[in-house]
Amino acid sequence: MSITTFRVWRGERGTGAFVDYTTDITEGMVVLDAMHQVQAENANDLAIRWNCKAGKCGSCSAEINGRPKLMCMTRMDELPANEPVTVEPMRAFPHVRDLVTDVSWNFEAKKSVKKFKPRAPDAPDGTWRMDQVDVDRVQEFRKCIECFLCQDVCHVLRDHQMHDAFVGPRHLVYAAALEMHPLDTEDRTRDLKDAHAIGLCNITKCCTTVCPEHIAITDNAIIPLKERVVDEFYDPFMKLVRLVRGQST
Amino acid sequence: MEFVQFHPTGMVWPPSVKGILVTEGVRGEGGVLRNKDGKRFMFDDIPDNYKSQTADSEEEGWRYTQGDKSARRPPELLTRDHVARCIQREVREGRGSPHGGVFLDIAWIKERIPKGAEHIRKKLPSMYHQFMQLANIDITAVPMEVGPTTHYIMGGIRVDGDSQMSNVPGLFAAGECAAGLHGANRLGGNSLSDLLVFGKRAGEHAAAFAKGHGATRMAPADADAAVAAALEPFARGGSPEAPYAIQHELQGTMQKLVGIVREEGEMRTALAAVDALRARSRTVGVHGNREYNPGWHTALDLNHLMTVSEAITRAAIERKESRGGHFRDDYPDKDPAYATFNIVLRKGTDGKMQLERRTIPPMPGELKAIIEEQKS
After folding, report:
1. What's the predicted TM-score (pTM) here?
2. Which of A143, A152, B67, B292 is deepest in the core (most CB within 10 A)?
């Protein structure tokens, strides 16, 4: 089809520079194919993390022409023709090498979300009964493949580096999946307010924009959780009621 | 090691998605396989032992997919190995699709079902998106192109069925890398239960083994030798042999000569080719350093890829019959004499691969009883 130039970030632990490679792009190729071709032809040691090539494993996250994307799902024919394509690692996480970053912070942050705590079984045989509508509501959140592109694009993490204070959109989606689960009995509202700092999200919807699974992160997960926090901690009427009852806020 | 399962329907185009599975569900919902002439070729070759269970008209097959219990299944839903071979035959004989597969058509059901496109999107959402996003193909409007793709290996590391330990003390295996559980052809869904049951056993026995044994002792000289061998590809940085090129050649060789349909002469050619590639793999050079270096990893993997390829080929030559995932053009029938032993391969004292026919022990009484119970 055409010879295309790729401007690929090469380097280790935060240091590095763009290196130009050219390779032949044929019909139907995605950026990951191009990177593999570069790896095979010119740069055997080019570090890439990838696995399924079908947008299901969430491993090949990178920034393509400055936008967080899965390399395996970015078709070459959707990028501007006759222009170099830049490919660089996610910038919100510690750099390891070339296109690979260390995303392990996410797995630690996830542990801070209280686990699923189901109510006692509804039937003597240990099973539950749920309404389909309640099941359907959380299905969307379960589509998450943990590519962490939403974390990468989130300005709280990316620009302000507040990884210690804020769990990020991925884990708010995870919390929403648990909070809205019809069987769950755990209360995560105080954690959402304090430990997870949901208030830091100012709903710019960048996370929703980059989600390869098209989860409506802001509208369906974060905003309903913010509403729960507001209902519990910032509702002036309830504050008054609690004050009268002598409860703490 | 000779038993390799091919899934009949993987995507064949575009190149980026070659091999990604197209679920059996597409055929289950009424999807049909056609060659370039539009012919439903699966009706041409229905094995005798399946004739009584298979639809003899397109009409009956359609009724089966729509839940009619009195109808028999369409030939598209015959066993994976058979469908894969039929597709390969169409392609080899020049009746394939433009990108080397055949057509899998689910769009045609619109003739039968009102709001067919919506029905397809609802029943097969992930397939609809997979083709839409990766191939720009709307499966509710046009057929998919599919072909057989390597899916699973029934062979593997020989382990004790209870502890999952191999004959290397302290080395445990479970799942696809272990051998023995799935016979000559794994059935759909059995991999997950394999992992749950034998993964648990392997973990428990490995933990007990670790507790009961101290740290392994290794002579420093052996460790040094292993390190030196692993680092050799860096020393050959200027070598014209690159790891990926050899890997691709090996893939091509095995696909072509020891693939879905096998034949003695071709496999002998493959053995020689693997030998030649192994010699070349010992001269590959890599650049860069030891951290996250896929080129180096591939260089180290090559040796193992050669071992596995040789083991598959030798076992496949030895098994002069067709059974399960192993099909020989020169021995197309099942031979009961081959049902009594497994083919075990090991490294001999001379470093060469040794092959042994090992008699399969009789089935324990309690298992026999279960099978009899299921039959009645």
Report:
1. 0.85
2. A152
